[in-house]
Amino acid sequence: MSPLSAARAALRVYAAGAAVVLAQLLRRCRGGFAEPVLAPQPDRVAIVTGGTDGIGYSTAKHLARLGMHVIIVEFLYCDLASLQSIRQFVQKFKKKKIPLHVLVNNAGVMMVPQRKTRDGFEEHFGLNYLGHFLLTNLLLDTMKESGSPGCSARVLAVSSATHYIGELNMDDLQGSRCYSPHGAYAQSKLALVLFMYHLQRLLAAQGSPVTANVVDPGVVNTDLYKHVFWGTRLIKKLFGWWFFKTPDEGAWTSVYAAVTPDLEGIGGRYLYNEKETKSLTITYDLDLQRELWARSCQMTGIIDMTQDTFSG
Ligand SMILES: NC(=O)c1ccc[n+]([C@@H]2O[C@H](COP(=O)([O-])OP(=O)(O)OC[C@H]3O[C@@H](n4cnc5c(N)ncnc54)[C@H](OP(=O)(O)O)[C@@H]3O)[C@@H](O)[C@H]2O)c1
């Protein structure tokens, strides 16, 4: 990415954020956000990554209130910036011999300075996207056993409006030529959307009782903004309570997507404010979904089942 496109990425991220904040303000003036009413979920198990803070903590809290057994990643230790740690986490989880009905791929970092995960991936790409790619793939067998027709297990990925301005740089996924924290964050959120859509197609082709959807929480008042420009942090500090959603409000789309009967058996959707909406046009590009999936399998050491599934 050239310095000019890095500056363009920053402007576009701020413009995307400002548009969401404006829409949220309008909605607040018209009555605000209502907590979805959902039925109790006893005997169901969920994993929420990034469940120690912000939106993930609120998601875990709401799912637990509905009666779910919720495993918070970090409580059962998992560093999503390490492929080895993810594999160890899955081993520990599987030793418990419990089912898994909901996986919320929520953890994330935003606009961090250029740095690498333990495996040498750019941090946004490695943690926000690849870490969840590996985690999901390793847990899929348990989820397939845990779901049943009429009561599917559900995988969710928490993306963001920044995916709309994201560009998937297939020649330089690690942003090594010219790093833009804004571009890297947006790319990781775009990759998550492509990932969920391809996963949903695979699951549907296999007839698996598991669905995959994307959720977009809006702009939410959390610590995610600790690496942004100081002026933005100041605005957040002064007006965040009014402009931004609270972590609970930000969690409602995740909680809704995790349990609502409206989405039983339905996957491949992008959900915002508990409603389906369109994601960026290129996210529906099947070749791009397939290409990213294949590259991600190589990077994480997963066997790519795409060919087998779609040919037989
Ligand atoms: N806030 C927003 O406006 C907004 C908007 C759109 C999308 N999102 C998305 O929502 C998700 C949650 O963000 P948030 O706003 O709730 O941010 P947050 O308050 O900063 O929470 C992020 C969570 O991710 C965890 N995490 C970070 N690095 C990790 C690692 N290496 N391994 C495991 N967990 C790790 C954090 O744990 P530690 O604190 O222990 O590091 C924390 O629990 C993110 O994917 C974000 O991109 C947020």
UniProtKB/TrEMBL annotation:
Keyword Oxidoreductase: yes
Protein name, UniProt field: Polyprenol dehydrogenase
Signal peptide range in chain numbering: none
Family note: Belongs to the short-chain dehydrogenases/reductases (SDR) family.
BP GO terms, sorted: positive regulation of autophagy
InterPro entries: NAD(P)-bd_dom_sf, Sc_DH/Rdtase_CS, SDR_fam
Domain of life: Eukaryota
Catalytic activity: a di-trans,poly-cis-polyprenol + NAD(+) = a di-trans,poly-cis-polyprenal + NADH + H(+); a di-trans,poly-cis-polyprenol + NADP(+) = a di-trans,poly-cis-polyprenal + NADPH + H(+); a di-trans,poly-cis-dolichol + NAD(+) = a di-trans,poly-cis-dolichal + NADH + H(+); a di-trans,poly-cis-dolichol + NADP(+) = a di-trans,poly-cis-dolichal + NADPH + H(+)
Species for this entry: Zalophus californianus
